[in-house]
């Protein structure tokens, strides 16, 4: 897949934000409060999280805490694992008391302002190094991470509401490539794929492709394996994404995952995919 240029990636982000807005635009209040697969978060909370991140990138701070509400120590929440998680939860907690209509107004405002700010960046600013959830990277790479995050949250909301959204297309392809970048490392670190292992993952569905991973000291994607795969895994790309996102366990989808070769290794790998939650 070709890497998106600055203008295209900004267009894809703007398109992604609009898609999220359309998905929630007609929800009633109970719909907004539907629980998602993300621990502790409703549909409302997912959108509040996006607002928080994009507001922070505009240099804005979370709203002041309401002194009449019980204080929440977000660091004590079991799913908060790092400082990024702390910041996410602070924004969500501070926005949670708002009516959904007001939250949607804030979302529309912040994403429109972010789009304008991104379009105003020159090439030097786009290439500048900046802290991100994946370490210090170029600002442009960070925006690819943002596209993935928002694309994943569109899926989270759609799943919670029981509706279907398009997961493929150029927007999905770019977001999915960002997701795939971590897979070889996850297979070794979490799945304990041994040195010398040859792994093939056949994906069907909206983002169909064949992934081949060779472990040679460290793991990486290869165009072709130097022999038959030690284990071959076949599943839908949507399920693969949800497993990697920690949205669902592999044990709940045994009939949807086909394994060949070393099935013990294959089972261990699919059980260990979750890395983004």
UniProtKB/TrEMBL annotation:
InterPro entries found in the cross-reference section: DinB/YfiT-like, Maleyloyr_isom, MDMPI_metal-binding
Keywords from the named record: Isomerase
SUPFAM superfamilies: DinB/YfiT-like putative metalloenzymes (SSF109854)
Pfam families: MDMPI_N
Domain Mycothiol-dependent maleylpyruvate isomerase metal-binding, residue spans: 13-158
GO MF assignments: isomerase activity
Statement: the UniProt record of this protein carries the keyword Transferase: no
Annotated signal sequence range: none
Protein's name in the database: Maleylpyruvate isomerase family mycothiol-dependent enzyme
Originating organism: Nocardia jiangsuensis
Lineage: Bacteria, Bacillati, Actinomycetota, Actinomycetes, Mycobacteriales
């Amino acid at each position: 897949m070709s890497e998106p240029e600055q203008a295209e990636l900004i267009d894809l982000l703007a398109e992604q934000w609009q898609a999220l807005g359309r998905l929630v635009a007609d929800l009633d209040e109970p719909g907004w409060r539907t629980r998602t697969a993300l621990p502790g978060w409703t549909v409302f909370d997912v959108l509040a999280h996006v607002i928080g991140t994009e507001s922070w990138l505009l240099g804005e701070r979370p709203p002041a805490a309401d002194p009449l509400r019980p204080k929440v120590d977000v660091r004590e929440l079991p799913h908060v694992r790092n400082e990024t998680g702390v910041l996410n939860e602070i924004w969500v907690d501070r926005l949670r008391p708002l009516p959904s209509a007001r939250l949607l107004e804030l979302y529309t405002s912040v994403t429109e302002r972010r789009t304008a700010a991104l379009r105003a960046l020159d090439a030097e600013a786009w290439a500048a190094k900046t802290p991100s959830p994946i370490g210090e990277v170029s600002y442009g790479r960070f925006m690819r991470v943002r596209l993935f995050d928002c694309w994943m949250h569109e899926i989270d909301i759609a799943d919670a509401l029981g509706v279907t959204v398009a997961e493929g297309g150029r927007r999905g392809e770019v977001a999915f490539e960002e997701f795939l970048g971590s897979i070889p490392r996850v297979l070794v670190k979490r799945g304990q794929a041994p040195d010398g292992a040859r792994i093939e993952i056949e994906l069907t569905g909206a983002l169909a492709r064949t992934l081949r991973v060779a472990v040679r000291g460290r793991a990486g994607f290869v165009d072709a394996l130097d022999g038959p795969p030690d284990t071959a895994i076949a599943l839908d790309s949507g399920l693969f994404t949800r497993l990697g996102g920690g949205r669902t366990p592999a044990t709940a989808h045994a009939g949807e995952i086909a394994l060949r070769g070393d099935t013990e290794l294959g089972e261990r790998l699919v059980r260990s995919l979750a890395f983004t939650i």
